[in-house]
Amino acid sequence: MAVVMDLLHRPTKPLITSSPPSISAAHDRNSNHNIHASSRLLPLPNSTTSSFRSHRICSHLAFHASKSGHGCSWMQDNSTYNDIVTNNKRNHGPLHSVFPPRSAESAEISSVKDLFEFICSGPLIDKLGFTSQTIADSIDKWLENGSHVCKLFQLNDLYLTTPQKARIYHYYIPVFLWCEKQISDHRSTFKDGDDIPPLVIGFSAPQGCGKTTLVFALDYLFKTSGRKSATISIDDFYLTYDDQAKLRENNPGNALLEFRGNAGSHDLSLSVETLQALGKLTKEGMKMKLPRYDKSAYNGRGDRADPSVWPEVEGPLTVVLFEGWMLGFKPVPSELVKTVDPQLEIVNKNLEAYYDAWDQFVKSWIIIKIEDPSCVYQWRLQAEIQMREAGNPGMTDEEVLDFVSRYLPAYKAYLPTLYTEGPKGSVSERTLVVEIDEGRNPILAG
Predict the structure, then answer these.
(1) How does DSSP classify residue 329?
(2) For residues 23 and 45, what is the distance between their CA atoms, to the nearest angstrom?
(3) Mode of pairing for the β-strands spanning 303-304 and 293-294
(4) How far apart are CA 208 and CA 239, in angstroms?
């Protein structure tokens, strides 16, 4: 399928327009396979499954190999990643902060059987209802999606470390297939000829755990399969600089509302307008702009980006990927809040309005679970160190500690309920809980 490179992400006062359907030429795809590379791949034994077509699998794995027989052309040319980031108006960090780096432990994928068994050993496989037979029957799809992810992040799909393989084949692809099933179930509830609104999938996960990168990869996979998707973040709904200043003035001495982040620092009316408008993007030619937030404005205080730079999405949308660190949080008894941090009382009160503004629109949930919220500090510190080492502005260690400390009370108050009860209105068959380790890879699914 054609690889659609123009990933479109988010804008603010949603504006829907209708225009004649556009016809875009399909991207040419390089179909030259590297014979030398594929000859190194050993086919699965026939005893595994009669439907396992080893010659096709070898072709998929070798699809992006360079003409020299090693390395990948996109390892040297990062235009795919950079073009997508630019089009989405997102500021992703360096690639080494996205995936575990390549090291001496990188090993050539020399056996299709080994990769198949690695996929089957993933911690999400049983939870998602996969079996070795269903994986074997759909192995072409697994490998094609894996190749797309490798291309996106400039990884050589013939030389992956174990952590890189885990991130792709134990995490991103199983979650993508789960999302596809959710979309199929959603669309099956409508009749032929109905306008089918996009499915809104909510991603709730603490900062730094990789949720934005996960959504980034899923969005790319949807577009490579020819489906239109949109991504939005709760960050896109932060108050303007002026309104945030008013919030700070109205809550003097409350460190949790001094800067953006906690409940009360979002424009909820903008959230409702945007999510409602996205739900109406059901026809070809319908377009809208999505709000974006510029965190660098006013020396890091932040402000809503100018509408001229908001990305545009076009219908018909299949799915909306909505992510945020506090998505799905719900108020808890005030007695509990006081024991965590008295400053959290007003935040807890503000949270009462968030279900109607955010959560009611989400029909399927992915909850990324961590054991210890203190990981957020380490993850953020790693990101800032990498930013500084790359020559970009970054917070000092002390600034990182101060930044994270403003979120920890909310984590302590709301994560236990999120993990045990789920978001308000969520149902088990439409909720996937993925527990990750300190390396951001899944270890359990609840």
Answers:
(1) -
(2) 45
(3) antiparallel
(4) 22
- Per-residue model confidence as pLDDT tens digits over 147-202: 999 999 999 988 899 999 999 999 999 999 999 999 999 999 999 989 999 999 99
- For the chain, helix, strand, coil in percent to 5 are 45, 15, 45
For residue 316, say if its preceding peptide bond is cis, omega within 30 degrees of 0. Answer: yes
Q: Looking at residue 26, what DSSP letter applies? A: P
Mean per-residue pLDDT, 315-326 = 97
| Residue spans of alpha helices (H) in 292-389 | 334-340, 344-350, 354-357, 375-389
Are 198 and 317 within 8 A, CB to CB? yes
Integer Cα distance of 331 and 349 in angstroms: 7
Give the range among 12-21, 162-171, 210-219 with minimum mean pLDDT: 12-21
Does the structure show a pLDDT above 50 at 49? Answer: no
The DSSP bridge partners found for residue 200 are 320
**Which residues lie closer than 8 Å to 189 by C-beta, 6 or more apart?**
none
> How confident is residue 59, by pLDDT bands cut at 50, 70 and 90?
very low
Token code pair at residue 430 = 């439409």
Place of tokens 């957020």: 376
Query: pTM for the full model?
Result: 0.80
End-to-end CA distance of the chain: 34
Local confidence band at 106 (pLDDT 50, 70, 90 cut-offs): low
CA 249 from chain center: how many Å? 34
Long-range contacts of the stretch 253-257 (C-beta < 8 A, 24+): 254/343, 254/346, 255/343, 255/405, 255/406, 256/341, 256/343, 256/344, 256/347, 256/406, 256/409, 256/410, 257/343, 257/346, 257/347
437, 443 in Cβ contact below 8 A? yes
93-132 residues labelled b (16+ CB within 10 A) or e (exposed): beeebbbbeeeeeeeebeebbebbebbeebbbbebeebee
Asked if residue 10 has pLDDT above 60, the reply is no
Write the CA distances from 216 to 213, 229, 231, 316, integer angstroms.
Answer: 5, 11, 8, 20
Residue with tokens 């013939």: 158
Residue type, 202: G
| Parallel/antiparallel/unpaired status of strands 312-314 and 286-289 | antiparallel
* DSSP three-state, residue 333: coil
Give the integer Cα–Cα distance in Å for 423 and 407. 19
- H-run or E-run covering 442: strand 442-445
Burial of residue 68 (number of CB atoms within 10 Å: 0-12, 13-18, 19+): exposed
Cβ atoms of 378 and 438 within 8 Å: the answer is yes
